[in-house]
Amino acid sequence: MSEGATTPEDRGEAPPTRKIIHVDMDAFFASVEQRDNPELRGKPVAVGGASGRGVVAAASYEARRFGVKSAMPSVTAKRLCPDLIFVKSRFDAYREASDQIRAIFRHHTDLVEPLSLDEAYLDVTVNKLGIASATQVAQMIRQEIRAKTRLTASAGVSYNKFLAKLASDQNKPDGMCVIRPGEGAAFVQTLPIRRFHGVGPRGEEKMARLGIATGADLAAKDRAWLAQHFGSFGEYLYRAARGIDDRPVRANRIRKSVGGERTFSVDRHEAEELRTTLDEIVEIVWERIERAQARGRTVTLKLKYNDFQLMTRARSLPRSVADKAEFAAIGHAILDELLPLPRPIRLMGLTLSNLERGASGEEDEGRSNDASGGQLALF
């Protein structure tokens, strides 16, 4: 390449055109409960434990109007919505519905990358029914899901994964959004910075201090400036602000770990507060472990101090972790060895890894699809 030449990405152009759909079920766990129990329909419902250190695993849209959301302590959710109805999770029912939904996906394409029971990317550039329009495929999939499961799904259609995921959240619930070739950068620049995956409350605060509130503000910054202020994360922000993402849809990707973390609005330091926080994270992560049907041998505790220094400690067993109680006990043992902490933390996370091969039902790396339809591709 001659000096001064640029790549299509550097010029803000889209990579070779794929047709990607991101499907996200609407309030999946809670919707399954409302479907199966007519008395819950139209009422604020939370899936999870109602007492003690219980955590909301999912909330219906009626509950979300009160500010109830997943990963929220149940006592907080009940305070926000006194009429909130708690139901115990039924992962067998959720997995059964998820299996029906994935069968619908595979009726259209084998290039399906599940992210969870209720969410997946699909590459329909070349699809089994030979339909040129990705929008039409997405409409058919949503109609089939409603007919076969009595549940609703939202979908985003675009030429890369980043944009498709943004689009699926644009018109929720039971909606669809299409971002066509050439429209990505303009769409992203209209969004508040909080919509960018990976930008949490603290990141949003930092960006506000730097005068960044929207994608347009971010797009006005060059790579050097972003690297100076955000380190390696700056490259992601540079590309995201321009709607650039060349990751392929990876069918049957290997699941390496299952975990979760919490970033705090106020730094935490006291031992009992940290132990309580760890219990809350255990509840969240074990729900995900059961949902993925995962079994693993290594538990890793992650802490990020208030100076952004990251620290991890892990402990492995010669066999898989037996149950939630053992998972929690190992996490607490690691934390207790670190107490008292040298300074407050802004984030805590817990992960199960060294998973048994196939435990998540996703074993092989799968195929990618680089077919290009050009700017005339039918979306």
From TrEMBL:
It is found in: Cytoplasm. Mg(2+) binds at residues 24, 118. Its cofactor is Mg(2+). Its EC number is 2.7.7.7. Binds 2 magnesium ions per subunit. This is DNA polymerase IV. InterPro entries: DNA/RNA_pol_sf, DNA_pol_Y-fam_lit_finger_sf, DNA_pol_Y-fam_little_finger, DNA_polymerase-Y, DNApol_IV, Rev_trsase/Diguanyl_cyclase, UmuC. The gene is dinB.
